[in-house]
Amino acid sequence: MAISAQSSKLSLPQTNPGVATVLEYLILKFPYIDASIWQQRIAEGKVHYHDGTAITAQSPFKAQQRIYYYREVENEPIIPFKEAVIFQDQHLLVAYKPHFLAVTPGGAYINECLQNRLRCSTGIADLQALHRLDRVTAGLVMFSVNPATRHLYHHLFEARNIHKTYQAIANVRTTEGLTGQQWEIKNHIAQASPKFRMGITEGPANSHSIIRCLQQCTKTQKALFELSPITGKTHQLRLHMQTLGWPILNDKYYPKLQPQSADNYATPLQLLAKSLKFIDPVTEQPRHFWCEHSLSLS
Predict the structure, then answer these.
(1) CATH architecture of the domain with range 2-73
(2) Which residues contact 31 (CB under 8 A, 6 or more apart)?
(3) Mind listing the pLDDT tens digit for each residue in 111-127?
(4) For residue 34, what are the CA distances in angstroms to 23, 40, 207?
(5) Which of left, alpha, beta for 107 (phi over 0: left; psi -120 to 50: alpha)?
(6) Are 178 and 172 within 8 A, CB to CB?
(7) Is the full-model pTM beyond 0.90?
């Protein structure tokens, strides 16, 4: 049994969804966790309020209360790839995340995530991810080191003041010369079914990307693309490559959801967060970080 060393937290919603107790809300909120597990966690004192007071099976639901709990999984997979710290100062840490490693705890992963690994290796218990990458995507992730300046870096992302570029490889199956061509994609992205997938639907555009072909190999019918997201919708780049008719190589979600299966480390999703560029809100100096790893058509 793997148990998180760090607590997870949630705030009870303003509108009561029709429950009487905190326990009932947790069972409703997490339908894939058996009710008996929440009952056991509460009985063992593993669920508590902000002040440390234990929650009981009879604790009433009260809007906006903060609830803390410790995630557990029966068998946590070990990801056999190594992260690397690219940059670190007293405010910011930038790291390379390998394919298949989650950024933060989620699903079957508690301790095997980038944030936990870096907390252990650096000794910085307050280290916190400032943004996310899909578990199957590799590349650069920024972390806040100092809680006092964390809000400044969060604002960079909220205000879209960070220029991010990615690389992706796709099967193109065309004799048309694509190298040097550029496409601007705008469409409406909304949650699809199952809920972890997104879809392109009717409606005003809420997603925007610029995609350029860097290299094409007619022999293998593959091409290397540079992707610049202007907005940051979930799975945006994966959907925008699909929009062009070139879904990213080894994508198990798009265009068609593949049956659930164990990770195949030999065929990672060919998507890499390559660079981050912004004006540092603390030093007011330009920052440009890039990943030494690259995707290759060979």
Answers:
(1) Roll (3.10)
(2) none
(3) 899 999 999 999 999 99
(4) 12, 10, 36
(5) left
(6) yes
(7) no
Q: Is there a contact between 176 and 244 (Cβ–Cβ < 8 Å)?
A: no
Residue type, 10: L
- Indicate if 164-272 has the same CATH topology as 84-162: yes
The CATH number of the domain covering residues in 84-162: 3.30.2350.10
Kindly list the domain boundaries of the chain, sorted by start residue.
2-73, 84-162, 164-272
CATH architecture of 164-272: 2-Layer Sandwich (3.30)
Contacts 24+ apart (CB under 8 A), 147-153: 149/91, 149/281, 149/282, 152/281, 152/282, 153/91, 153/92, 153/281
Residues in the chain: 298
In Å, how far from its chain's centre is CA 48?
A: 27
Residues 237-256: pLDDT tens digits?
Answer: 999 999 999 999 999 999 99
